[in-house]
Amino acid sequence: MAQRVVKPKTNLGPGFWPVTALIAVVSAVMVYLVETSPLPIGLIQAGAPADSIDALFRFLGAIAAVILNIVVIYTIYFGIVFARPKGAPANTIGVQIHDAPVLEFWWTAIPTILVVILSIYSVKIWADLQNSKGDVLTVEAIGYQFGFQFRYPKVKGVLNEMHLPLNTPTTIHVTSRDVIHGFWIPELRMKADMVPGLINTIRVTPTVPGTYHIICSEFCGVAHSVMRTDVVIESQQDFAKWFSRQGGGTGSGGGGSGAGIAIDQGKADVGQKLFGQKCSACHSVGPFDQKQVGPGLGKIFNDPAHLKLVDGDAPTPQNVAKIIHDGFQGDIGVMPSAQVNQLSNPDIANLVAYLASLSKK
Ligand code: CUA
Q: Which atom of ligand 1 sits closest to the CA of residue 146?
């Protein structure tokens, strides 16, 4: 059908190309500044992945600067050039543009391409972080109202200070004892929510010694603003000294910190209730391979396919109690300690009694 398409004459005003050139120049300057100026407030990069996160941040900043210039400068320019002529009626309507497929194509294509590029770049950085290999040290950080506690392998109990050795790829599992907190070390850029019942993981490799803040970044109550502590990043020698002062080191963690638990006083029916409240989110009562977050525990004491517990010990009640008490981290996953799960020693005895009753069936 022959249409009389009345194309409005393209009128960009007298100064369009000079203004476009101005946008190009201002954008180039801003991109240069975004990419090269030191970060504000002296936020140093104290380790990986601060560098890759900063690179992403600068890239986002550069693109945002260009978009800002295009939007703001053109808006001002067109606002001036196409202002209502003096004397024209107050309800004057400007030129209406319809059926401009070329224009529509580009204002759809350009943002789409931008979003795709940003997505690929971000996902790549995220994947690199999550898949970084060679965890040398694994630390647990537990948030509570209002502070942080830390658990180290082979150190009994929880510590109130965090030390990290230089140039050591470190995995930090974070969780919470009560409400949602945020674990944030600005100098390493990494941040993760600390959620009760959930373990989030961040991976860092500290490279610059110093004492930096760990800040709670999630509003968690009246004292949220003071919920912060320090992380000390130090040489591997200094870290080793600190670590041995905490009782860590050469295998001293063996010997069963669950030893004080009176296993024989456990009651299976009480344990069953407790299991429903504390354990069933992650563990089924089916066989080992019926995994949820962790393995099934229904046959923990008499599973011919798994003659050892996940920590390599024999499946005795005392050893099961020890895992519940100390928590566990390994290839299969991470289970927080009894302190994080808020289990008392009698609770543990009841749970062991319940698991034992399952294994008998
Ligand atoms: Cu914990 Cu805010």
A: 1
229 alpha carbon – ligand 1 mean position (Å): 12
Query: Do 246 and 155 contact (CB within 8 A), yes or no?
Result: yes
Given the CA of residue 225, which atom of ligand 1 is nearest to it? 2
Between the CA of 196 and the centroid of ligand 1 the distance, in Å, is 13
Residue nearest to atom 1 of ligand 1 (CA): 181
Q: Note down pLDDT in tens along the chain; length 361 residues.
A: 455 555 555 677 888 899 999 999 999 999 999 888 876 666 888 888 888 888 888 899 999 999 999 999 999 999 998 888 888 888 888 777 788 888 899 989 999 999 999 999 999 988 888 777 656 788 999 999 889 999 988 787 888 889 999 888 888 999 999 899 999 999 988 889 999 989 998 888 899 999 999 999 999 989 999 999 999 999 888 888 888 888 765 433 333 455 567 888 888 888 888 888 888 878 888 888 888 778 888 888 888 888 888 888 888 888 888 888 877 776 677 777 776 677 888 888 888 888 888 887 6
Q: Which residues line ligand 1 (CB under 6 A)?
A: 143, 146, 181, 216, 218-220, 224, 227
d(CA 341, CA 146): 17
Phi, psi dihedrals of residue 215, rounded to the nearest 5°:
-120, 140
15 backbone φψ class: left, alpha, beta (φ>0; ψ -120 to 50): alpha
Q: Give which of 293, 300, 308, 305 is closest to 351, Cα–Cα.
A: 300
Q: 100 is written with which tokens?
A: 């401009």
Cα 199 off chain centre by: 10
| Atom of ligand 1 minimally distant from the CA of 179 | 1
Q: Which is it for strands 191-194 and 47-48: parallel, antiparallel or unpaired? A: unpaired
C-alpha of residue 143 to centroid of ligand 1, in Å: 8
